[in-house]
Design goal:
10 helices, alpha+beta, four-stranded antiparallel beta sheet, isomerase, 263 residues
Length: 263
């Protein structure tokens, strides 16, 4: 697998930002007297492989070597021209330094306070319980600007017109071409007033009065209804763990802010 230049550059930046080379490392090259340690290549290779963007190979290492040398040449030229002293560059460097340090703090905190499998299972059970008895609806809708326009659509439907044909005139251009199709979704995915308009309908039912939302007036049809299928724990375990990790970090941040003296 060949790594695209843009992705390689991102990997180089990430690796150089997260790994400081040991002073005794063997040099990859010396550019105008400035040494580039071989360990930087190892860091970038590790980053590339971890992200699934390539495999360790002589070709990859050679490409990384060329890029590292080119970056060092450009860096030296940028410093020569005084770019490192520009206020906007200094600000960007300060921001990058802060992000790197804070991210390392966060990683260390989560390593010492990991989300356990028990935490994940408890959150999954809570989620599954909230989904019990919930329904998903396959919906279509026609959006109009005025209430009278929506009433006219309802009258045409009662007269035998096909919903999918009338939907071509919908103000919702994203669904109009597909007969107003909104696909499957739970009521919670919609504004409350929109959800209230269809949750009492049976399969095949159409709202007999316009449903008003901030977007306009809707005529809604329920194509089908089904019970919500809760995915297996293994299917969403990673998502749950990531969500709990972010919650844990947010709580840690809030705790630190509360302890700080902010004037």
């Amino acid at each position: 697998m060949t790594l695209k230049p843009a992705r390689l550059l991102l990997a180089l930046i990430a690796a150089s930002a997260t790994l400081a080379a040991p002073a005794f490392a063997q040099n990859l090259a010396v550019v105008n007297g400035k040494a580039i340690p071989t360990s930087r290549v190892d860091a970038v290779v590790k980053q590339v492989v971890a992200q699934g963007q390539g495999q360790d190979s002589p070709q990859l290492r050679d490409a990384i070597k060329r890029d590292l040398i080119a970056r060092e040449v450009l860096m030296q030229e940028a410093i020569k021209q005084g770019y490192d002293k520009k206020p906007e560059v200094k600000q960007a460097l300060d921001n990058a330094r802060q992000a790197i340090v804070v991210n390392q703090l966060a990683r260390d905190y989560i390593e010492k306070n990991p989300v356990s499998d028990a935490d994940v299972k408890a959150e999954y059970d809570r989620y599954a319980k909230t989904q019990a008895g919930e329904k998903e609806y396959h919906l279509r809708h026609i959006l109009t600007t005025t209430e009278d326009e929506a009433k006219a659509v309802i009258a045409k439907l009662k007269g035998g017109a096909k919903f999918e044909e009338l939907a071509k005139t919908s103000k919702d251009t994203g669904s109009a071409a597909n007969g107003g199709d909104l696909d499957w979704a739970a009521p919670s995915a919609f504004p409350p007033e929109f959800a209230a308009g269809f949750t009492k309908l049976q399969k095949g039912g159409v709202t007999d009065t316009p449903v008003k939302t901030g977007a306009g007036f809707h005529v809604i049809k329920v194509d089908d209804v089904r019970a919500v299928k809760v995915p297996a724990l293994d299917e969403i375990k990673a998502q749950i763990k990531e969500s709990l990790t972010q919650n844990k970090l947010a709580a840690y941040q809030e705790e630190m802010v509360k302890k700080a003296k902010v004037q």
